[in-house]
Design brief:
It is built from 11 helices and 10 strands. The longest helix is centred in the N-terminal third of the chain and has 18 residues. The protein folds into 2 domains: 230 residues, Beta-lactamase (3-Layer(aba) Sandwich), CATH 3.40.710; 148 residues, 3-Layer(bba) Sandwich (D-tyrosyl-trna(Tyr) Deacylase, Chain: A), CATH 3.50.80. Helix content is 29%, strand content 14%. It has a 5-stranded antiparallel sheet with strand order 2-1-10-9-8, sandwiched between helices. Strands 6-5-4-3-7 form a 5-stranded mixed sheet. 54% of the residues are buried. Helix 4 packs across helix 5 and helix 7 crosses helix 8. By secondary structure, it is of the alpha+beta class.
Length: 472
C-alpha cells in the first residue's frame, strides 16, 4: 500500500520524547476514579471479576498534543544503574517469578541501558508479541487505510455475496459495543436494499482473502473458539463474538457474518453458505473500518487476538507473503527488521502471541518502544504509545495497581501478557524526577500449578519501583 507520510507532521524532539509522558500526566491530573473494564484479549480476567460492556470505548486521539512541558525536557536526571539494580534486587528474588525474570530498562531519550537481566535471551512474550504486530502494521501499511467489507451480486438472480476484506470489527450494532468507528451490518443492508433491484434469495460468504488454516496448529486446544479468540477468517462481525458485547467467540464467524446480514435485511430465514464471488460482480454495498492507526490502538488497548491476527495477515499481503499464519509470521518479523531493529533471537509464529512458540528478547521490546519515541523515528508509529493501557485506568491494566500496588498507577503505560506459566509487561514509565523510561519484563517460568497471573504483582512492583525511584 502506498504511504502517505505527509498526513502526519513530524513532532519536535520534546513532543516525540514526551508523548507518552504527556498522556500519563493528563490521566493522573484528571483524577479518574471510575473505570469500566473492557477486555477481549488473551490476558485473562481474575476469577469472579465482572465484565461490563460499553457502547463506545474511548481511546486517546491520534493527534500529537501540544507541548505541555519545556523544550529542554529529556534533561531530567537519569537513574543510576547501580542504584537501580540494588533497589530492584528483592523484587527479582520474589519466588512468585519461579526463579526467572528477563528484563530490560532503557532511557528513552538517549538509549542508555539502565537495567539488564538476560535481556538478549529469547522468552515467550504472550501478548507482548502484539507490539511487534503493531510495529509491522504501522510501518508497512498506510495508517490511514481502512479495511473494506463489500456485498456484490451473486452468480444467480437474487443471490448476494458478502466479501470479507479482513475487517474483524464489522458490527451488528450502531455504534459497535467493542470497536470505535466500526462499519455496521445495518448500513450494508441498507445499501443492498437500495441497489439490488430484485428480491434477495440467498447469501454467499466469500472469505477467500485469507488462506490456510483458520486456527493455528501451534495454539493450544481450546484457544479458538473461546472467550479470547475465534477462528481467523476474512469475514467477521464483532470480532467473531457470538453476539454484540458477548465475551464468547464463535466457531463459524464467517457464516455468522452472513446470518447477521440476513437479519439486517429483515430476512433471517435466508440461506447462508460459504463460497466465492463471481468475477467482475456488480458492487451492491461497501463498508469500511476505522483507519489502521485506530485499529492498532484498539488491538493494543483491548489485547484483541482476532484483530491482531487480521492485521498480521494484511502485513503479509502488503509484503508479498501468503495471508495465513506462516506468511503473517514471516512478514511481521521482516517488517520489524526492515524498521531497523535487531531481531537476533526473534521467533514469530503468530500475530497475537497466543502460541508458546513465539520468542522475543526483552531487549528487542525496549528497542521497539524507544523507536516509537526517538526524534528521528517514524511518526506513523505513534499509535503504539497511545494504544497502550494506562495502569489503573483503562484497557487490560484497568484492574492493576490496586490493593497495595498503587505505586505506578497513572505513570505506567504498558502492554500486559499472560499465558500458562508466563506473565509479561512492557511499556513506558515516568520516574519520580520526570524521566521517561522504556521497560520490558518477561517471567516465563512461573511455578507450575500456581495462579495464572501469579507473577503480575511482582511485575507491577518492578514498574512501581521505576516510577517512584530517583535512584541517584
Amino acid at each position: 500500500m502506498p504511504a502517505r507520510r505527509a498526513e502526519i507532521a513530524r513532532p519536535s524532539r520534546s513532543r516525540r520524547l514526551l508523548l507518552v509522558l504527556l498522556a500519563l500526566v493528563l490521566v493522573a491530573a484528571a483524577g479518574v476514579t471510575t473505570v469500566v473494564l473492557v477486555h477481549s484479549g488473551s490476558d485473562p480476567l481474575p476469577p469472579g471479576l465482572p465484565v461490563a460492556a460499553v457502547a463506545e470505548p474511548v481511546l486517546p486521539d491520534l493527534a500529537v498534543p501540544e507541548p505541555a512541558l519545556a523544550d529542554d525536557a529529556g534533561d531530567e536526571p537519569v537513574p543510576d544503574p547501580a542504584a537501580l539494580a540494588a533497589i530492584l534486587a528483592p523484587t527479582l528474588a520474589d519466588p512468585r517469578l519461579g526463579g526467572r525474570l528477563l528484563a530490560s530498562v532503557v532511557d528513552v531519550a538517549d538509549g542508555e541501558v539502565l537495567f539488564d537481566a538476560s535481556a538478549d535471551q529469547p522468552a515467550t512474550p504472550a501478548s507482548n508479541a502484539k507490539l511487534l504486530t503493531a510495529f509491522a502494521a504501522l510501518s508497512t501499511l498506510d495508517p490511514g487505510d481502512r479495511l473494506a467489507t463489500t456485498v456484490v451480486a451473486g452468480s444467480t438472480p437474487g443471490e448476494i455475496v458478502l466479501v470479507g476484506g479482513g475487517d474483524t470489527t464489522l458490527s451488528r450494532t450502531a455504534p459497535s459495543l467493542s470497536y470505535p468507528g466500526a462499519a455496521t451490518v445495518a448500513d450494508l443492508a441498507q445499501q443492498v436494499l437500495g441497489n439490488a433491484g430484485t428480491e434477495i434469495t440467498g447469501i454467499v460468504v466469500d472469505s477467500s482473502l485469507y488462506t490456510g488454516p483458520s486456527v493455528s496448529p501451534l495454539w493450544r486446544t481450546g484457544d479458538a473458539p473461546s472467550t479470547y479468540a475465534a477462528p481467523i477468517t476474512a469475514t467477521m462481525v464483532d470480532g467473531g463474538r457470538i453476539g454484540p458485547g458477548s465475551r464468547s467467540r464463535s466457531g463459524t464467524p464467517d457464516l455468522d457474518a452472513g446470518a447477521a446480514l440476513a437479519e439486517a435485511l429483515g430476512r433471517p430465514d435466508l440461506p447462508v453458505v460459504a463460497g466465492l464471488a463471481p468475477p467482475e460482480a456488480a458492487l451492491l454495498a461497501r463498508g469500511e473500518s476505522a483507519p489502521v492507526s485506530r485499529l492498532v490502538e484498539t488491538m493494543l488497548a483491548l489485547s484483541d487476538n482476532v484483530l491482531a491476527e487480521s492485521l498480521a495477515r494484511h502485513v503479509a499481503l502488503a509484503r508479498g507473503q501468503s495471508p495465513d499464519f506462516a506468511g503473517a509470521a514471516v512478514a511481521v518479523a521482516d517488517a520489524v527488521a526492515a524498521g531497523g531493529l535487531d531481531t537476533t533471537g526473534l521467533t514469530v509464529v503468530d500475530g497475537s502471541g497466543l502460541s508458546v512458540g513465539n520468542a522475543i528478547p526483552p531487549r528487542l521490546l525496549t528497542d521497539l518502544l524507544r523507536a516509537v519515541a526517538v526524534e528521528d523515528g517514524n511518526p506513523d508509529l505513534a499509535p503504539i504509545s497511545s494504544g497502550l493501557p494506562v495502569a489503573g485506568y483503562d484497557g487490560t491494566l484497568v484492574d492493576r495497581y490496586e490493593a497495595g500496588r498503587t505505586v505506578g498507577a497513572g505513570s505506567v503505560r504498558a502492554k500486559s501478557g499472560t499465558l500458562d506459566g508466563v506473565n509479561a509487561l512492557a511499556g513506558y514509565v515516568v520516574t519520580a524526577q520526570g524521566r521517561v523510561l522504556a521497560f520490558a519484563l518477561i517471567a516465563d517460568q512461573l511455578p507450575p500449578g500456581g495462579p495464572l497471573i501469579g507473577g503480575e504483582p511482582v511485575l507491577d512492583a518492578f514498574a512501581g519501583v521505576l516510577a517512584s525511584c530517583g535512584c541517584r
